[in-house]
Every structure is written in C-alpha cells, then in structure tokens.
C-alpha cells in the first residue's frame, strides 16, 4: 500500500470483476410452439367510444403485437369528392412512434405504412356491401401500438403479422359499427421454412425460423373466398408448393375466424340485451 | 381528420356508367370471353422497346405502351463498402417517379416496393466485388405519362431490359484489395452475361392478371380492371417459380372475393405466359445488340 497515490481517491484494495450477465432474449426462453399451433388471440370490440365501431387485438405472450382499429361512418363524402354510387372505404394503418423495438418511428406516414394501408383497404373493401351506402365514406383507422420483432423492409414476417392482425381487427370493428357486410374477413399467415420448406402455421418473427417464403391471406370463411393474397419468396407451382402454403394460410384464417365470430357475437348479445 | 378520399392515379374511376360496367362485366364473363379490344385472354398489347438510350447511365431502357404509357429506366452503380450484418437486399435501391403525381402517391410506393420485391436476393448476390466491397445499384424509373392502365407490367419489363443491358467496369485488382477498375469502358462486363437466359438466371418479371368469373385476362386495361373480381400482380421467374404475388385494388361492381381455384388457375397460367414473355424479351435483347 506504500505505493498508493494519495492525491487521488483510490478504489478498494480487493478488486472484483464486474458481473457479466448472459444475454437472454425473449425468443430463446419462450417454449417453441408446434408448427401447427396458433397463438391465443384477445379480441374485444367497442373499446373506443367516439368511433362508430372499434376493436382491440392482442396476441398471447411472447408476442407483443397489440393494435386497435376504429371505424367512422358511413358518413357523407365531402362535396369535393364527387358523386359515387358506392360507399368509398378508405383504410389507414399507422405504427405508433413507440411501437417498434429498435428505432422510433416518425409521425409522418412512410412508404411501408402507405403500402400496408392500401393492402388493408383491398382486403376489406369487397367484404362490405358498398352499394348499400351510396355517396358515403367509411374510414378505417388502425393503430399498431406494439409490434413483434423488428419492422423493416426485409423482415417480412413482422410486417405480415401486423397486417394480418390489422385485417382481423378492422373487420371486427366494421361489424361493430353495424355496417352491412357480405362476410367477415380474417387473415392468416403460413410460411415455408428451412431447407425442406416445411410448413409453419402462424409463424412469428420471434420464433427464429429461416423463412423461405411466406403467404398472407385475407379470407372470408363463410363464403370460402379470398379477398387478399400476398406472398413473398420463391414458390414452385408444379410441385404444388404455392397451393399448399396458401391452403395452410387459409386454414389459419379459418381458425382465427372463430375468435372473430365470438368477439362480434358479444356485441350482438349486448345490444340484444339492451333492446329486450 | 378524415383520410383524403381522392383516388390516386391508379384507381382513378373509369368514365363508364354502372350500366356500361355491368355490360363489360358480362361480356368478360362469357365463355369464350369478349374483350373490348378483341384481344385473346393471354394476349398483351403491342409495345415498343429501346435499349441503352441514356449515355450517362450504366444501363437504360425505354418502353412505350400503345395507350400512351411511357416508361424510362436508368440504372447507375456505385462502389460501396460492405457493412456486416446488413441485409444484402439493401444493395439495390429503387425509386419510381410518376409524372404528375406526388412522390408519396400510393401508386409510386406500390410500384417501387413491388420492383424491389421482384428482384430480391438474386440480383443483390450479383453485386459482390471481393470481400469488403460491393456495387450499390440505383434503379431510377420515370413514368412519363400519367398511366391510362396500371403500369406494373410496363415497369417490370422496362426494368428487366434495363438490367439486361447494364455494364459494370471490369475489376483489375485482386479480390481482397481495395477495388481498382479498368478505365476502358469497352472492356466493361455485363451484369447479366449474354448466356444468362440459357442458364435461367435473369431478373423476374411482374405480370398483371385480372379474373372475371372463371375467366382470366393478362395485361388488363383500366376498364377491365374496374370490373374484375380480383387483380393480381404475379412476379414469375424464368424457371416458372412465383417470386411474389400481391393483390391490387379491383372494381366494386360485385362484392366478395375470389375462390381459391381461381387463384390457382391464375398462377398456373402465369407460368406458360411468363415463358412467352421471357422469350420475347430475349428477342428484344438479341435485336438490341
């Protein structure tokens, strides 16, 4: 201790090593789901009082996807819009600034949000009986409060999951608004993963699969019709890869439809209770 | 704050009345169908193509559609230092400008992302220069006239031709050195070698397909899209693989979606039609040199 520097405050003599914690991510601790197992969905309608119809969707842990949809309308179109014999459905999907794990997202709509908004509109437009509401506009707003995984141009699954949640949630909100529809739309995702291209239902970006191709469908189970199809990645036609991925995604959408039915039913029962 | 309900360039309403749309819908659902311009279901409109028209680019092309749609593609390359852990797809940057539309127009956004999706990893893999450097490719697309019909096919064919005639300076340094290039432009190497088509490694093309009832139409006009049950933009590879598929906005004449078997029929027909398209593109490229 004779050598200790007295002009400075010295550290304690018995040196210790700072503790090093092992890196732990949510994805590793979560038990992996079976390839054909879907996550549980929480879907509730009428949670935004000022909107004509609204819904909130959340996926079970470890997924953190949360989104709300609100529907305004049918309301008259502004005079500048011109005459339209059908209702015009517009959809807007927005990521909240705090929704992503990494970088903060800005308030201004970016290219990805515009792209997803258009796809959301395509998925919903043909499920609504637009001819019933001439000269009116139906506006759907979806806000993604929390994403799962990162959202960037190259992470397809994160984007697809957000869009799939948005379609299901927005369809519940449209039904909640009491707008006449031909059927409800639920969305499902399936992916071909690994070298063999084995099929996974409802893959999450947190599962850490090596995704070769993924398909998202917007599906009207009551009519067995597809309103939206979006695939990414190489898929063979002759080998039937394309068909099997789409069929799997439809299967997912069909199962998600049961959740959608229950959520919409709650509201119908509540309204019935008030009237009787 | 309501979202603006004004339709974009792609979804501009047709001047047809509901009765006219219904007439068009039933004539397209006939077996065999009758198209307003008497084309066959899988027949494209004739087009004019030019290669290598811009001397200050590494590769360029121009395609003109008979309805006045005109598209110019210019491709420029830069050398960029490789950053680890960065997705290689970021080596290709696509920008689309539609004349007369704002740069955040949904059409331009859609076109840029669909071109990027179509090219994907395969093109990015070609841009390697040694270990620490790579090419960064800027694909700038200019749609000169406000499109009368949806320009997805036009754009994708123009990008294909532009990429096929792109030449990059020849590397003279070793792979692990800082890159040094041959300054003789005549010695430049093509991005896609002339035999690329024989080995099947050429950029994919996007085909626009509309389904009306059981009938399927390639290269639909705006009026046909307005009455279609569904419009799909299918990107096909040389070897008949689907590399991407998107649903576009279709008309509101009828409600409901499409059956799975119709979609299956669409993608199955895209394979032979895609082969034909690739064959004619090959003809254009052969004639261009």
Automatic annotation (TrEMBL), chain A:
Pfam families: RNase_PH (PF01138). Transmembrane segments: none annotated. It is found in: Cytoplasm; Nucleus. One of its GO terms (biological process) is U4 snRNA 3'-end processing. Residues 37-180 form the Exoribonuclease phosphorolytic domain. Its main location: cytoplasm. Keywords: Cytoplasm, Exosome, Nucleus, RNA-binding, rRNA processing. GO terms for cellular component: cytoplasmic exosome (RNase complex); nuclear exosome (RNase complex); nucleolus. GO terms for molecular function: RNA binding. The keyword Nucleus applies. The keyword Cytoplasm applies. Belongs to the RNase PH family. This is 3' exoribonuclease family, domain 1-domain-containing protein.
TrEMBL record, chain B:
It is found in: Cytoplasm; Nucleus, Nucleolus. SUPFAM superfamilies: Ribonuclease PH domain 2-like, Ribosomal protein S5 domain 2-like. InterPro entries: ExoRNase_PH_dom2 (IPR015847), ExoRNase_PH_dom2_sf (IPR036345), Exosome_comp_Rrp42_subfam (IPR050590), PNPase/RNase_PH_dom_sf (IPR027408), Ribosomal_Su5_D2-typ_SF (IPR020568). One of its GO terms (biological process) is nuclear polyadenylation-dependent rRNA catabolic process. One of its GO terms (cellular component) is nuclear exosome (RNase complex). GO terms for molecular function: mRNA 3'-UTR AU-rich region binding. Residues 209-255 form the Exoribonuclease phosphorolytic domain. The keyword Coiled coil does not apply. Belongs to the RNase PH family. This is Ribosomal RNA-processing protein 42. It comes from Sphaerosporella brunnea.
